[in-house]
Design goal:
The protein has 73 residues and is an alpha+beta fold. It has one domain. Helix content is 40%, strand content 16%. It has a three-stranded mixed β-sheet with strand order 1-2-3, sandwiched between helices. The chain is globular, with a radius of gyration of 12 Å.
Length: 73
């Protein structure tokens, strides 16, 4: 089975790993319940819509490493 993760998805996963470690260290860098998603995810719109309904943050990570944190409200 090959790796089906997208380029931006790999970066989003790395950001999530860093966020978990920072939270363990007592220095959170993103709000609680943040979802990390690559901008090239096939269902990005669905993820954003679902999280908006849940009033939860989404971190969108782009293939060039740029990121956008979308906060509820």
């Amino acid at each position: 089975m090959g790796n089906s993760m997208t380029p931006a998805g790999r970066l989003a996963s790395a950001r999530m790993d860093a966020a978990i470690q920072a939270a363990i260290d007592g220095e959170p860098i993103y709000p609680d319940r943040t979802v990390f998603v690559g901008s090239d995810h096939a269902k990005l719109g669905d993820v954003m819509r679902r999280r908006a309904l849940e009033r939860a943050p989404v971190l969108i990570v782009y293939p060039d490493g740029e990121e956008r944190l979308l906060l509820p409200g």
